[in-house]
Amino acid sequence: MHRFVVHGITRTRKRPSPWVPCEYIFGHKDLKTCKNWFERLMACINNEGDRPKSLMVFVHPLCGKGRGVKNWEIVAPLFDRAKIKTKVIVTNRAGHAYDTLVSLSDIELKALDGVVAVGGDGLFNEILNGILSSRYKASYPPTPEGFGYFGSNENCEEQTRSGLNCSMPTPDSANTTFPGNSTKCDDHEPLLSTSQPRGLEIPSLKQDHLVPFPNDWFRLGIIPSGSTDAIVLSTTGERDPVSSALLIILGRRMSLDIAQVVRWKSSPTAEVLPTVRYAASFAGYGFYGEVIRESENYRWMGPARYDFSGTMVFLKHRSYEAKVAFLETPNTNPLTASAEDDVTGAQPLQSCQRRPRKIICRTNCFVCKEASTSGKNSEGEVADSSRTICENPKWVWSKGRFLSVGAAVISCRNERAPDGLVADAHLSDGFLHLLLIRDCPLPLYLWHLTQFTKKGSDPLSFKFVEHHKTPAFTFISSHDESVWNLDGEIFQACEVSVQACRGLVNLFASGPEV
């Protein structure tokens, strides 16, 4: 009897892995028949165009509790069995992955089907910026009238006619160098009227490179090995290296929104020097930024430093003066609080206003599909022209003292926040969830934070919390008291503008199954 083995996958309800590898043994007494079966199976697999054939893999050896190398050793045989070529690079410093990807020629990049991060959210952010920094050219985010810096396509054209460069700076510019002189680990954790008469416009997608973004073939993947792995949990629903590896091998595909963050000034006295960064999960100022900055002093503690730093920052209970302008969009009804709301207990602590029913993003999400379809032309390709989100955008200002200012691109689920920061955030709808936490008594802030740890709770319903669903916002502070946290990476800025780039990259994922 002649036999051959077919390696496959099967589903299981046992956590943490919903996908597990399995083997099927086939046999026949005739060798020629076995070979014929084998060849037909291989032909079917080779004809599946979504399956990757060549990948670049970055392994972070220090992420989490040093799980990066171990996790890759576990899943590497799966890639070998699937006959996927992998070029493995073990990072030896911060910025290693960024520098490698920036230096890749378009021909080298086009030979790959994707890049995989074996690490946490920070390593993924480094890879994301390394790929997009010189290859995705777009106008800066729109800004409110009187802000003083150009941002829209309309203003961008005017600046171009005046001889100014409105697209993203080249990687040779000093202001696009990724901060690679630190020894940071990549497993950071975020705790828990307009001058645009033609409407808000998403960046133009015309590119000069051979590898334009967005595109339909190049994908990014994550094999979770960090401390929180919020991106993996938000896009797959599981935090399991084997499951993520199998999704990559099978060639799963889904679009992911990316936040483009433009720093105009690093400090109030600094010169205007636009610097562009990208974030896949979260951008936060104040409490979120201080937790990351404080944790740098306790790196020797490992992942526990985030708990310790979070407690230290919480007890300081600092607030920050700032102005935030966001684009109000139709058909969104967030719960907001005004500056005059009493948060001392004289009024109800949580609003009794009826909140709209939450539509949770999941596999084959119809919200993300509708958003994706609206941004494609009649041939199903990403349109070259800018895409209008709303015809009459309106800028709304929010001023005062804030404990934190944050923007969630995705739900940001993690093991301590089972529903994430925003339970109903979608992966590819073209919107950010702007969270403004106004100054309030310490016990109320603690109550707010503890709600994130409870599944099914509503931490955004407090009177001192503003929640706005918006495609773009601008932040201005007259001080440099705090820093920004971009996917766990520190970003010094006192004036920024941020916009959602809808479906900018593709992931080896299919959405959370919740």
From TrEMBL:
Name the chemical reaction catalysed here. Answer: an N-acylsphing-4-enine + ATP = an N-acylsphing-4-enine 1-phosphate + ADP + H(+)
Record keywords: Cell division included?
A: no
**GO MF, any single term:** ceramide kinase activity
| A biological process from GO | ceramide metabolic process
Q: Which UniProt keywords apply?
A: ATP-binding, Calcium, Kinase, Nucleotide-binding, Transferase
Q: Which GO terms describe its cellular component?
A: membrane
Protein name in UniProt: Ceramide kinase
